Automatic annotation (TrEMBL):
UniProt-listed GO biological process terms: nucleobase-containing compound metabolic process; translation
GO cellular component: cytoplasm
Spans through the membrane: none
S1 motif domain ranges (all copies): 643-712
InterPro entries: HHH_9, NA-bd_OB-fold, Ribos_protein_bS1-like, RNaseH-like_sf, RuvA_2-like, S1_domain, S1_Tex, Tex-like_central_region
UniProt-recorded name of the protein: S1 motif domain-containing protein
SMART domains in the cross-refs: S1, YqgFc
Molecular function, one GO term: structural constituent of ribosome
């Protein structure tokens, strides 16, 4: 199998592009580096295409390795035929390879293996051949009966041979492939409730059936969870009669003396052996697809969250709300440095509202605070009421906003937080993190395992290793697209830069603490364990502002500095202009870019990227994201009524809709059917995490704490 050709066909790209990517990956280049700085080699494949290619390449390489393993195992058993070798060569999935291997795989003792061990294989072969000469199967079986064994009578011997045939029918790779497709096309997944708790926790599924081909992923994961918790009994239903008929058409040879026993063996092979395996396969495939879809949703939500716009110039009072232990407070300057911290008690049981307002005023006066941040967890609603009163009464403009605190407790108790702030208690670290999330969401959220950020569905039911790998790829993509300041980035942020491991990130921080700020990208080569390949991968994504080399503040890779200087010289612009905010209109000054790329002997995509960087050095793509919603009116569920229009922030997007923070204690749900006038295939086609949206209240269920919203204006 030519992997490059196969991948090219799958992904709709040229085999040459695939081979270039394979060579670059083998040479130690990272996906972000290839996507950004090797566009000519890949034909302009973007980060997403490259990651898809990498994942499929890994699968196909594992497939080829498994084919070799299976061929070797079957050959060692003396059973590798030319037909099987060809079938293995043509297999395009690991499932097909395992189907081909199954008849030869050594398993635990079965009814069929015991019959084979007793010498009934020839009788089974005669039964399967269904010879035409008249004979009495019992008379033939009598020759194989052995007194004192489990097959002492002709009937027992015949049944043993039938068990062998049943297993061969169930293990036949082509029959398995046909039946697997049949079950997945026509079967249904069925659930029944178990116990009283099922009605409470899984009411929609206590008496449930849906075709396998139509059930959406979030329902698959819900059924799996109910089954795991012992509250649902989940099965796969398929047309047994039709399945058996398909097997009979494959294995029966017209009328023969063996027909009755063959029919019985085929029915037994399907019902006892094939059907349970096919049901497992169907459930596994549903679960794998559901998890893949859920991970895709999780990945897109995480990316949207990481791409939230930084709030520059915010001097912040951050409050992490609580009841008995009070609200922890952290005061930060516009660079995220801690200025002061403390605790206030505006919520029950103390209700120190006026004391809290005075404390807020003192901090705001002393540190010129212009923004207050409130976490959206426990006691957020009561804390927000007090903050809103303070903002209305304070003598100069201050605005406030709510910040999603998902994962803040994970960070505050982590080793990263302990290293950053060893003198602060866990709760104060949490408040500090909330404030920094507003100032620079990306820089703060990279300190938290991405699966703890809280934007997804059924995350604990997924393969955690695969989820972590997927989300780490998302974080890596966003971090490298944004870039990082080499002299201010944390080790957590640096560890996501292409080519930099956590150990090297720690070494970079240690180097600048010992030697002082970096003044040149070339100094990276002096960092322990940061070798030439790591430098090639990371250099273009790390910025140095105010260094010796103005181009170090841009996304231009050091390998292209010569071209960048030639471009500036042709435009009559000194390199120092780059450090003063860039060279607006540079592309217009240069004229025909195609001709220029030939003149400079550089690829057109690379030249265009260089010019774009020189025009706007270090442009932050997050500046295009919507701004946070500030100073919302404080509401309670009692204030909500059908038809009320509100502005909210999308906190999470799932398969069936989006959860929107509208300023009350719990988020409201906009069901997918209420997101637009027309058909919506997936909520992500309409909204992303962090979006500001206008919604209308549809219904409020106070007892269950549920708010139904619509993005379609009532008529």
């Amino acid at each position: 199998m030519d992997i490059a050709v196969l991948l090219g066909e799958e992904l709709g790209i040229r085999p040459e592009q695939v081979r270039s990517v394979m060579d670059l990956l083998a040479d130690g280049c990272t996906i972000p580096f290839i996507a950004r700085y090797r566009k000519e080699a890949t034909g302009g494949l973007d980060d997403g295409q490259l990651r898809t290619l990498e994942a499929r390449l890994d699968y196909l390489q594992r497939l080829e390795a498994r084919k070799q393993e299976v061929a070797a195992a079957v050959e060692e058993a003396g059973a590798l035929t030319a037909q099987l070798r060809q079938a293995l060569a043509q297999a395009t999935t690991l499932q097909r390879v395992e189907d081909l291997y199954k008849p030869f795989k050594k398993t635990r003792a079965t009814r069929a293996s015991k019959a084979r061990d007793a010498g009934l294989g020839p009788l089974a072969a005669q039964m399967r051949a269904q010879g035409a000469p008249p004979c009495d199967p019992l008379a033939v079986a009598a020759r194989f009966a052995r007194a004192g064994s489990a097959f002492a009578t002709p009937q027992e011997a015949l049944q043993g041979a039938a068990d062998i045939v049943a297993e061969e029918v169930a293990n036949h790779p082509d029959a398995t492939e046909e039946l697997r497709g049949f079950v997945q096309r026509t079967g249904s997944i069925v659930a029944k409730g178990v116990g009283e708790e099922a009605q409470r926790d899984f009411a929609p599924y206590v008496d449930f059936s849906e075709p396998l081909r139509r059930i959406p992923g979030h329902r698959v994961l819900a059924l799996n969870r109910g089954e795991t918790e012992g509250k649902l009994r989940v099965t796969v239903s398929a047309d047994e009669a039709e399945a058996v008929q398909r097997l009979e058409r494959r294995f029966l040879r017209g009328r023969s003396p063996w027909r009755d026993v063959m029919e019985a063996a085929i029915r037994d092979g399907y019902k006892r052996l094939a059907a349970p395996a096919l049901a497992r396969d169907a459930r596994n495939q549903l679960t794998a697809q559901a998890q893949a879809d859920a991970m895709n949703v999780f990945a897109k939500n995480t990316e949207a969250l990481l791409r939230q716009r930084p709030v520059k110039g915010a001097r912040i009072i951050a409050l992490d709300p609580g009841y008995r232990t009070g609200c922890k407070v952290a005061v930060l300057d516009e660079y995220g440095q801690l200025l002061a911290h403390g605790t206030v008690f505006p919520t029950p049981p103390r209700n120190q509202v006026e004391e809290t307002k005075r404390a807020l005023a003192q901090w705001a006066d002393r540190f010129a605070v212009n923004t207050i941040v409130v976490g959206n967890g426990t006691a957020s609603r009561e804390t927000e009421e007090v903050v809103a009163q303070f903002v209305a009464e304070y003598h100069r403009p201050v605005e406030y906003t709510i910040v999603n605190e998902a994962g803040a407790s994970v960070y505050s108790a982590s080793e990263v937080a302990a290293r950053e702030h060893p003198d602060l208690d866990v709760t104060t670290r949490g408040a500090l993190s909330l404030g920094r999330r507003l100032q620079d969401p990306l820089a703060e959220l990279v300190k938290i395992p991405p699966q703890s950020i809280g934007v997804g569905q059924y995350q604990h039911d997924m393969d955690q290793k695969q989820l972590a790998h997927t989300l780490e790829g998302v974080v890596e993509r966003v971090v490298n697209q944004v870039g990082a300041d080499l002299n201010t980035a944390s080790a957590s942020l640096l560890s996501y830069i292409a080519g930099i491991t956590p150990a090297v990130a720690a070494n970079i921080v240690a180097y600048r603490q010992e030697k002082g700020p970096f003044t040149s990208r070339t100094q990276l080569k002096k960092v322990p364990k940061l070798g030439p390949k790591a430098f090639q991968n990371c250099a273009g994504f790390l910025r140095i502002n105010g260094g010796k080399e103005p181009l170090d503040a841009t996304g231009v890779h050091p390998e292209s500095y010569g071209v960048a200087r030639q471009v500036l010289a042709l435009a009559g612009v000194p390199t120092t202009e780059v450090a003063r905010g860039g060279v607006p209109g540079l592309r217009q000054r240069l004229g025909n870019m195609v001709a220029l790329s030939r003149q400079l002997e550089v690829g057109l995509p690379t030249l265009c990227d260089i010019v774009a960087e020189l025009e706007k050095p270090g442009r932050d793509p997050r500046d295009d994201a919507p701004a946070p919603v500030f100073s919302r009116a404080v509401l309670s569920v009692d204030d909500l009524a059908p038809g009320l229009s509100l502005v909210g922030t999308v906190r999470n997007v799932v398969d069936f809709g989006a959860f929107v923070d509208i300023g009350v204690k719990q988020d409201g749900l906009v069901h997918i059917s209420k997101m637009a006038d027309g058909f919506v295939k997936h909520p992500m086609d309409v909204v992303s995490v962090g979006d500001t949206v206008t919604v209308w209240v549809e219904a409020v269920d106070k007892d269950r704490g549920r708010i139904s919203l619509s993005m379609v204006e009532p008529r």
